From TrEMBL:
Provenance organism: Bos indicus x Bos taurus (Hybrid cattle)
Gene encoding the protein: SAT2
Membrane-spanning intervals of the chain: none
Domain of life: Eukaryota
InterPro entries listed in its UniProt record: Acyl_CoA_acyltransferase, Diverse_Substrate_AcTransf, GNAT_dom
Name of the protein: Spermidine/spermine N1-acetyltransferase family member 2
CDD domains: NAT_SF
Protein family: Belongs to the acetyltransferase family.
Pfam families, sorted: Acetyltransf_1
């Protein structure tokens, strides 16, 4: 069984965080959308006024160890704990429509699917559309 330790990210973790972002984007077939650099991660996460709060899960498992050991649940529970400690009232997760395994996990943990329950859709402005919107 894998051992999981979840801790606050340190500035020195930025290289590995970026690697994980890229691996996730590749898994989600969205590699072309990764635009952030290691320097931007440092500035946004560890500057004077951090834009985000990052946790790192260190997972020690044997190579080829099977999934389904509760690691995802442990990570989400820790995120909820930190969010409540920071005064947050919600935890929102985004998942692609083909990732049934993730959706099933979130529902099993008590999350409400807002697409089903309330009809919410997510929108994003980026690049030229964002510059145009801002008049720049």
């Amino acid at each position: 069984m894998a051992f999981v330790m979840i801790r606050e990210a340190k500035e020195g973790d930025c290289g590995n965080i970026l690697r994980l972002i890229r691996e996730l984007a590749e898994y989600e077939k969205l590699s072309d959308q990764v635009k952030i650099s290691e320097e931007a991660l440092r500035a946004d996460g560890f500057g004077e006024t951090p834009f985000y709060h990052c946790l790192v899960a260190e997972i020690l498992s044997a190579p080829g160890e099977p999934q389904g050991q509760g690691i995802g649940s442990k990570i989400i529970k820790k995120v909820a704990e930190v969010a409540l400690d920071k005064g947050c009232s919600q935890l929102r997760l985004a998942v692609l429509d083909w990732n049934k395994r993730a959706m099933d996990l979130y529902k099993a943990l008590g999350a409400q699917d807002l697409t089903e329950a309330e009809g919410w859709h997510c929108f994003r402005f980026e690049g030229e559309a964002m510059r145009e919107l801002a008049g720049k």
